[in-house]
Amino acid sequence: MRTQYGDVFSLNIFFENAVVINGYDAVKEALVTKSEDTSDRPSIPMFDHAGLSNGIAFSRYGQHWKAQRRFALYTLRNFGMGKKTIEERVREEAGYLCSAFQDQEGHPFDPYMVLNNAVSNVICSIIFGDRFDYTDASFQRMLHLLRESFELESKPITQFYKLFPWLMKVPGPHQKLFQVVRTYLDFLEDIIQKHRETWDPSIRRDFIDVFFEEMEKNNENPNSTFNEKTLLSIIADLFVAGTDTTSNTLRWSLLMMLHHPHIQGIICRDIGPVFLKLSKAGEDTLSSVKLGDPANLELIWGTTIIPNLTSVLKDGTIWKKPHQFYPEHFLDSDGKFMKREAFIPFSAGRRICVGEQLARMDLFIFFTSLLQRFEFRIPDKQPPPRQDPLFMFNFSPYPFQICLQVR
């Protein structure tokens, strides 16, 4: 199905009684004003069968979801989300990222995997207690599985599982998605098991250790949602959310810099004197569908509400040039940064992204680190990369290559 803001894939096949909500006013009313009525999630047989409905992202709105979201927010903040401690980790990882870019020695390369490595290592340091080297074979395998699962989830066959759920139990090539997801979950289960074998209740190494504590506290409570099945689902949610969306945004950012080199120059000029300083070690670091009047939104019980965030970010009644790369959207008449209420890439309401603070820090530090260190350009004899999106679970850039020069 196509709306004026983009594709909503086979909506009537994937969801029954689905309504797409377009525009800022309507989305705000649905997600914020009437959040109690719109915070649930529909049952998606494909995710249920894959074992991905017991965490935070796809679980139903109720006591399980509330308890696990509250725990996740509390624990992420205790491990530094939004604080100076996690900033130091991101800055350190930005150094590894810049070194990996510089190792390309100016040759054309696709930044996809190295960006995924860097961004993923930040959330890994919180949930697993450590980062992975960019050459770690098992880590690379996990990231490749993640990408492959996104590609498979975007294929037409997955949209028929709603109509023909028996397909999920019948052998055939369509089972590849579940095989990939199972391998990915096996990788996470192995990490959890190794944590269990070395767990010391007196030491909090990471998110998994704190979850173990909660499991011990609630081991006699038959209604507790703290169990290893939930832990696996939440770790899977956090790893995906803390990896793909942020690295995807960084790729879009670099793509825009290739197409708008004059903006790249302005950014470098503006961030240089403000954020760059020389550390004692001599390294560059960073300082700290149809909808009536939105005011009369009526929801029919059992209807799947799909808020089209793209329609908000491209709402012509709010943005001067909604379909163009126009940084001035966020500048006032004096050229200073201006916060826009309608800028909601992390959604809004009760289901707003748990890791918003971490993602914002990742994006700022990684992007400014790269722009301070390198000048990016389109490789010689290559056409400008495509700017239209590729649907692969989310809107991603088509693969592209970059060349860089150390500033």
From TrEMBL:
<dbReference type="GO" id="GO:0019369">
    <property type="term" value="P:arachidonate metabolic process"/>
</dbReference>
<keyword id="KW-0503">Monooxygenase</keyword>
<dbReference type="InterPro" id="IPR036396">
    <property type="entry name" value="Cyt_P450_sf"/>
</dbReference>
<feature type="binding site" description="axial binding residue">
    <location>
        <position position="353"/>
    </location>
    <ligand>
        <name>heme</name>
    </ligand>
</feature>
<dbReference type="InterPro" id="IPR001128">
    <property type="entry name" value="Cyt_P450"/>
</dbReference>
<dbReference type="InterPro" id="IPR008069">
    <property type="entry name" value="Cyt_P450_E_grp-I_CYP2D-like"/>
</dbReference>
<keyword id="KW-0492">Microsome</keyword>
<keyword id="KW-0472">Membrane</keyword>
<dbReference type="InterPro" id="IPR050182">
    <property type="entry name" value="Cytochrome_P450_fam2"/>
</dbReference>
<keyword id="KW-0256">Endoplasmic reticulum</keyword>
<protein>
    <submittedName>
        <fullName>Uncharacterized protein</fullName>
    </submittedName>
</protein>
<comment type="similarity">
    <text>Belongs to the cytochrome P450 family.</text>
</comment>
<dbReference type="InterPro" id="IPR017972">
    <property type="entry name" value="Cyt_P450_CS"/>
</dbReference>
<dbReference type="GO" id="GO:0005506">
    <property type="term" value="F:iron ion binding"/>
</dbReference>
<dbReference type="GO" id="GO:0005789">
    <property type="term" value="C:endoplasmic reticulum membrane"/>
</dbReference>
<dbReference type="InterPro" id="IPR002401">
    <property type="entry name" value="Cyt_P450_E_grp-I"/>
</dbReference>
<dbReference type="GO" id="GO:0006805">
    <property type="term" value="P:xenobiotic metabolic process"/>
</dbReference>
<keyword id="KW-0479">Metal-binding</keyword>
<dbReference type="Pfam" id="PF00067">
    <property type="entry name" value="p450"/>
</dbReference>
<keyword id="KW-0349">Heme</keyword>
<dbReference type="GO" id="GO:0020037">
    <property type="term" value="F:heme binding"/>
</dbReference>
<keyword id="KW-0560">Oxidoreductase</keyword>
<dbReference type="GO" id="GO:0016712">
    <property type="term" value="F:oxidoreductase activity, acting on paired donors, with incorporation or reduction of molecular oxygen, reduced flavin or flavoprotein as one donor, and incorporation of one atom of oxygen"/>
</dbReference>
<keyword id="KW-0408">Iron</keyword>
